[in-house]
Amino acid sequence: MTSQRVLTGEHFINGDEACTEGALAAGCNFFAGYPITPATEVAETMSRRLPKLDGTYVQMEDEIASIAAVLGAAWGGAKSMTSTSGPGFSLMMENIGLGVITETPCVIVNIQRGGPSTGLPTTCGQGDIMQAKWGSHGHYEIIAISPSSPQEMFDFTIRAFNLAETFRIPVLIMADEVVGHTLERVTIPPAEKIKVINRKKPTESPETYLPYKTDSSLIPVLPNAGDGYRIHITGLTHDERGYPVPDAETQEILITRLINKIRKNRDKIIDYEDYFLDGAKIVIVTYGSSVRPALKAMRDLREHGVKVGLLKLNTIWPFAEDLIRKLAKKVEAFIVPEVNFGQIALEVERCASGQAFTKLISHPGGGIHTPQQVTDGVKKILSDLGSKRKKR
User: Does the reported pTM lie above 0.90?
Assistant: First the structure.
């Protein structure tokens, strides 16, 4: 490897390594983390690449320290990132909440494995999806995206940094072991063809500047430490000055803004891919490593005349609930293969309630679905729907 920030061309690398290259292409110049399978290759690659680019790599004593260092580096002006897996992700939860309330842009990569607890350290799971949404205390909004290939690990990591900088929020990359360890060709474009969003700086003078005063975007333009602006950074409920004001009125103003800056921009954040949705009776909703067996199952079923489509969720949170509600008025059922016992399936069921049936195809972890398992799930729901029609 060279010391170039963007290693253009085609590379045969795994998803973890592709994630690192995406981060560097996006301008990441600070990484703090603790080695944990199956995310170790993210840290290992960063430890080799980042120092050659005048960046900073720090191996911390644990994941609590790692996320704290990432937040601090971001406030110093760095584009910062960490990577982890299930147990480490759990340890980061309190400081993810701190990142949300202080509006700190950073990227947290979770290469999911089987759990709970130590679980399956070296094999696949998708059990952290709801934790990504609700893991920290209090009510808040978060952005979480889900790559399904090494190429997407590169592309989506760049997007994660851009989203973090745009919306001043920690962004989660919810990958899994299969995606992280799959070795494939990854195409890295020239640097000038990569869209990179950098942090805005205040235009007001230090004398008139209020750090948390926003325009209609609801997103503050915050200075970096050392820029000459006075700013108070706190996890306490704070006013436009950043000063703690622990009362219900200030809480309502602050939390409503933090939530609405994401909700009102859902259309800019939510990303998905769809296949054969027009005229479909059954739609497979899938993400991460479940995408490939689901795509194979969909193609096999369509070859046999089954009207099945597929919705690939590139963004997990915010959830594409408006799209699911729209589809629920047209289709008979949703099939959701997940390497857990039902997390995104619950969201699909909530949004489709009263309109279309939702069937989970669960997997306990340690591997992924086969295409046949997805195919069988679709056939089973078709049989059940047929039986219901006969009873009518």
Answer: yes
